[in-house]
Amino acid sequence: MPKTWRNHALLAYALAILAFLYLPLMILALYSFNESRINAVWSGFTVNWYASLFNNRRVLEALTNSLAVACISTVISTVLGTTGAMALNRYKYRFKAAINGLLYLPILIPEIVMGLSLLVLFSQTAIPLGKVSLILAHITFCVSFVVITVNSRLEGMEAELEAAAADLYATPLQTFRYVTLPLAMPGIIAGALIAFTLSIDDFVISFFVAGPNSTTLPLYIYAMVKRGISPEINALSTLMMLTTVLLIILAHLLQGSPKKASPADE
Amino acid sequence: MKKLFILLSALLVLAVAGCGGGDSKQSSSGGEPQVLNLYSWADNFDPAVIEKFEKTYNCRVNYDVFANNEELLAKIQAGGALYDVIQPSDYMVTTMRKLDLLEELDKKALPNTQNLVADLRSPSFDPESKHSVVYAWGITGIIYNKKYVKEVPTDWSALWKPEYRGRVILLNDNREVIGMALKKHGRSNNSTDPAAVKEAVDDLKQLAPHVLAFDTDTIKQKFIAEEAWIGTIWSGDASFVYKENKDVAFLVPKEGTTIWADTLAIPKGAKHKELAHKFINFLYDPKISAQNYEYIGYSDPNEKAVPYHSKEYNDDPILKVGAAAIASGEWLTDIGPALPMYDRYWTELKTGK
């Protein structure tokens, strides 16, 4: 008897935690169907906000800006971060510990300091604020995360495999392409995903370095507060949540059949 | 793995195509459409009006947004020549004029600004409208719900009545709230006299414990949902609330009040000055102005636009109250060294000392 009681309590606890995590999101989604232009009272069901969302050029532009900045900075920071991690991991040189430590710094310093210092840098070097400055800033804070994720993957890899490849007359390039890269790939993908998420979420740094034609979605939503956030934003958030869920399911499906997939890939 | 690679590279191609496409649109086509970089509050124009401007002048409007004046100031100081038209509020115009950040407007290129209501053509922050033109304006007044507030309030002291305890909202703004109390005592909302400010704040300290919230961002929701019964509000927001809840009413107390405005201005060194003037002039065309204000819901400062507005807009009781009270409004000005005193009192009020 006490055991089932404990099970019930645990279940209730788990449900409470889940509700705590998901209730706000569900309310957000629910209000995207609210007729009223403001989220004060429920005044009726409508799907008009979804229709008007696709006609709202400003929201769509902000979304495009966010996606473009996130994609470009993810790719560049993943390439830079992966090569950086390889260098840090494979070679011995002076002040290695210090350089390693410096890589953690962008993660540790408050975003607001980083945003401000980037803004000062851009205005000192006369780099105009806009998409370019925004992408540069996003790469700056994403690189460290990629280096760290890839590095931890490389730490766990054994050097013997690469030595074996060399023994079998693989050139360094071939070793990298067919041995090192595939082994490091989970780390690289994890790093890229973190970079993408950070970039698309970022508010504080973007707030400082955005310029003409580079208002991202978080900046746009923040600025809407003055006039009241319209349910179009709820509709957009709901769609983005659905996309995320679909992507997660997709990722699981891809990961779920590695044994079947990898021989076919070769 | 290969699949993920393909996915990632597809995303990249999309992204690059996305930006590249945007750029080539601006530069390649023969007509060479100009770009107007607009930096403003979110949702501050009817999108159709901007589209009309783009078509009429064969240009593209980049509309970027900020959430407060300080953000605007920082961006303009960091390298201001990037924007062509900006929208500082009243006191920020003063600051920007002092810092020499604004281009002098060419009045000959702006004939339509003569359509402005006379009271708004010479605001104290820019008496000759040299650097700015009033765009959206509003006035602070009392909003109340007739279901709960039976006696029509006539002066600011209504907020202090014991029967509304716990149902009062004050704006979450230092100068607005202390300015309101100063007005209640018959003084200027820009008073720097320590005794006068102290008197006003002491009075507010009687009210502060009974306030439901100091709120500017979600004040509309609170009145629509009838959580709040009475409070201070800007006329534009009051009109918004009225459209959703017909039980509310709005009035400007007899002691006078604070008036505010967002303006249109051109930052120093703007690259597309000519187009910027065209844009400003375009917005004061009576027909365009009518269309624009129907959308944004504030009082149209354009006298000539009245016949083009819908009956519903012209009859909006709240906008009428606001428009009739322009003369009783006083602009907030830069109070300079007295600001720390206001800040200290504000902290005391909000922390209940």
Describe the structure.
The complex is a heterodimer of chains A (266) and B (353). Chain A is mainly α and 266 residues long. Chain A is built from twelve helices and no strands. Chain A has a domain at 57-230: MetI-like (MetI-like fold), CATH 1.10.3720. Helix content of chain A is 78%, strand content 0%. The longest helix of chain A is centred in the N-terminal third of the chain and has 34 residues, at 57-90. With 353 residues, chain B is an alpha/beta fold. In chain B, helix 6 runs parallel beside helix 13 (339-351) and helix 8 (235-244) runs antiparallel to helix 12. The longest helix of chain B is centred in the N-terminal third of the chain and has 26 residues, at 2-27. Chain B is globular and about 65 Å long. Chain B starts with a helix and ends with a helix. The model of chain B is unreliable at 1-30 (pLDDT under 50). Classes of the chains: A mainly alpha (266), B alpha/beta (353). The interface between A and B is large, with 50 and 40 residues.
- Low-confidence runs of chain A: 258-266
- Distance, first to last CA of chain A: 56 Å
Give helix and strand order of chain B, one letter per element, not per position.
Answer: HEHEHEHEEHHEHEHEEHHHHEH
Look at the helices and sheets of chain A and give the structural class: mainly alpha
Q: How many helical elements of chain B?
A: 13
Average pLDDT rating of chain A: 85
Question: Which two protein chains have the largest interface (Cβ within 8 Å of the partner's Cβ), and how many residues from each?
Answer: A-B, 50 and 40 residues
How many strands appear in the DSSP assignment of chain A?
0
User: In DSSP terms, counting alpha (H) and pi (I) runs of 4 or more, how many helices of chain A?
Assistant: 12
Query: Structural class of the secondary structure composition of chain B?
Result: alpha/beta
CATH structural fold name of the domain at 57-230 in chain A: MetI-like fold
- What's the story with the biggest beta sheet of chain B? 7 strands, mixed
Total tally of structural domains of chain B: 2
